[in-house]
Every structure is written in C-alpha cells, then in structure tokens.
Amino acid sequence: MFPIRAFHPVIPTRIDTQQSPTAPFQLGSSAVPRAQARKRAGATFQAAIPSKRTTIAPGTTCLAKPRGSAAAAQEARSPAKSGRASLAAANHTSPRRAVTVDTIRGASQLLAYDEYQNVRACAGKFQVSERELRSFVKPDGNFTDLGHRVHLGSLLTPGDRQAAQLPPLVRKTELTAEDFNLANGLLGRSVGKMSRTLFCDLFGYDYATIYRAYNKDGSLTPWGRENREAQPDAAPSPDGAAGAVAADEAERAAEQAAARCLSQRALHDGIAIGYWEGGGFRRLGVPGARFAGDVDRMGGHWRIRPARDGHYRLAPGPRETDHIVNILHLHEKGGRQAVAARYDLLPADQGSAIPLVPKPGALPDENMLPPDVTAGS
User: Fold this and answer.
1) CB 3.0-4.6 Å disulfide test: which of 141, 162, 306, 348 passes with 310?
2) Segment 140-156, tens digit of pLDDT
3) In this structure, are residues 125 and 110 in contact, taking their beta carbons and an 8 Å threshold?
C-alpha cells in the first residue's frame, strides 16, 4: 500500500515584520523583492474596496467619504478667509519702522499730490504704524499741529532722537496740572491725536503713570480724574513737557524769505525746487519743469537733497539760497565730485547729510544773477 502524501497548496506566506525592508519577500516559492510584493498586495486589496461611488447591488449605492474632506470643503468654501489670515500673518511679522521727520514729510507730499489715496497706504509704503502716522499728517496731506511742530524742529520724534544719538528722556512719574492739560489735548483716536505710548515717547512720561491715568480713547480713568481734581488750576500749556521747544517766529520769517528767493532763482534757471515750509510741501519755480531736488530748514541748517541721490547740509550765511541752487546744479551735472570742486565736504556718518563749506569763488559771477536774487537772505 502506497503512502498518501499530503497536498500543500502554494499560498502567500505572511509578511514577516522582522525582515529587512530590502530583503526579498517570499511569495509562494518565488523570491520577490519586498517593495514589489507590497505593490502587488496593495493593488489586490484596493480592488476589493468600493470606489467613491460604486454600485454594490441594484438600488444600493456606496458613497465613500474621502479622508480630510471636511477640512477641504471648509477651506474651499472660505478661500478669502484663509487669504486674509495669511495676509494678517504677513503684516504681523513685517517689521515696523519708527516715524521720523522725513517719514512725515514724505507722506505729506504723497497725499498732497494724490499719489497715495489714504494714510493707510502711506503707512504701508513707509512701513510705519498707521495710527502713529495719523498723529502727524492729515488725509489731505497737510500737517496736524503735532506734525507741524516736528516739521519745524521744535519737537523730536523718538526715531529722530535715536538717529541723532541723543540721550533718552528722563520720564516723569508724577503728573501736574500742566501735564494733564497737555495729555487731554493730545490723547485719543481721532486725527491729530495719539496713543498713550507715543505720547510717553514724545514728551518723556512714564508708561505706567499715563496708562493708569488715561484710557485708550483719551478719557481719564477714575484714578486719573481723582488726581486731576486734586491739582491746583493751571493755564493750558501747548508744550510744557520734556523734548518740546517753543517754535521761533523768527525762524518762520526766515523760511518765508528764503522761499521767495528760491522761487525767483528757480524761475530764472527754469527748474522746479521742492520746499518744505510751515504747512507742508510746495513746489517753487516753473510748473512742469525738471525737478532739481528739495530743500528744507532743520535746526537752523539747510538740508539739500538733489533729485539724483545725495544729501547735503549747509549752514546759514550770506547768499545761502544762491548756494543751494548752485549745489543742486553741480550735483545734477557731476554728482558729489562736481560739488567737491566748489565746496569742502566735511566728514559725516554713514547715511547722514554731508556738511558743506563754500570755497572761495564757489558761486558763479554775481552779474549773471538777477539783482533781486543776489540780495537774498
């Protein structure tokens, strides 16, 4: 009698999880690479799963819900929301710069000439706080009372103090009647008003003291009202705080006289000059003519910025407006090298205005200039 041999069908053996990922996988009697075996097994398994919409039996439908569909549908329904979130995140991480006198003047010029529609756009261009910029510039481009004082140099912004490497302000921790009068006129959210932080940085007050005395909208807190009522009456003071200096009327008169002389020179030479005076920016000279640069008076000195880069500083003196126009012409023709041929350039810090001292014969022949201009400031 012959022995009966057991029949062993060839079936796939189980996957040994202890095998190396690169070791051959034993499928029946054939050695198949492990990755290929996984691919085959996956294809076999997927074939047994209904698709997203597969008919199982007459009248029966299987609807497979893909993973993550709820989140995807929510994102599809509100793409604007995700876009706004990304924009908000970008704005939150973008660095803000300190407002300076140049920022205020630049925003005033852009708004006055309708190059930017609103203060928010200007704040974005200069990368500064919109609310802080509104404290200095009105939507029509004119200066606020505070911006006018910064423009004239009677008040320094924190950014200008830092650029000038001035010592920090000694902050006041006790409020007098004059301090309350100053804060009452400046704190708030409307145009020309400012935040409590900016107020402290401009005028040298302790943060905790002002925050304890005033709310965000500029109104007094109960503690502030109690302390204000305990103070003796005092006349309101427009300055009355650290860092503020009364504007000099003689300085304004000198600016107006210089504007007249510069206007005559610009008309004579057929050019246009930008001039910062009192209420804001104005163009002097021939309308539509080529722009030579802009000029302003800061701290008793003239700052001259030619249209093609350059930044110079000239001390006041005889025929100063003639020197200003002459410097603009020289820089336009040959840059700093041409200016250095007629003026001594003194050392200056990187990015600061270069002080100029006229050399003998720096100006052209006086007979070539109009009589009413040579007698200028």
Assistant:
1) 306
2) 888 888 888 888 777 88
3) yes
